[in-house]
User: Fold this.
Amino acid sequence: MVGVYAIVTAADSGWTSLHTLGFGGASLAMIAGFVLLESRLRNPIMPLRILRLRSLTGASVTRTFLFVGMFANFFMGTLYLQHVRGFSAFGAGVAFLPFSIVLATFSAGITARLMARFGPRTLAIAGLISIFSALLLLAGADPQSGYFPRIFVAYVLFGLGGGLAFMPLLNISMSEVPAADAGIASGFGNVTMQVGAAIGLAVLGTVASEQTHVLLAQGDSVVAALSGGYHVAFEIAAGSVVASMAVLLLVLRPSGRRSPVRAERDEAVAEAA
Assistant:
């Protein structure tokens, strides 16, 4: 919360101001203090041993970068629809329906069947490419862009990408976790994803606001300036998804080693056979 506050208020105080650096430094100090405390406790709430699981930490970072892009769509996309395209609050909600419908359709069992056939990593890559394409479409939208086809197609791609990527990344993150640490690992993955996405969204909002002020100072209309600010935010969000894909490809490379849970299951099947 302290770190997010530092980022959100940076647009007014300045990135190098004592206010921003003070709160930013305090947030880093609190994180360091937490890690130090956890390393010394006999029964910590977050055993640091789980950080040695490459699949968990790598998938958590991948999901964090991904959700920065997704949150940019939910937050900046809503502002774009209302303040640039003139949608009402209800209309903006209806505009997101393609995303919800496609995501719900894949969640009904389609993703599980595709993952069994193609593997979680391949499916996650396809999902990230879909979300990246959606963000590029939104980054290219202007005040004259109609809902059909650009924005509609973008929201369909968001739903498709989420439907293909969410479950496989969760599956990868838990693939090497011992059964005794399943709850801790799941909590760690969700906390890093939510906190990282919140910080990323704070950065996107601050950058978009600064870009809007620059365009207004250059004489652009309010609508054009807002649109320009949102474009920059969508472009950065697309870059975040690229970073997510890079982590997936470089860190989460397939290995021949079986996870403890999978090994135990395979041994039980072999014994039964």
In short: Residues 265-273 have pLDDT under 50 and may be disordered.
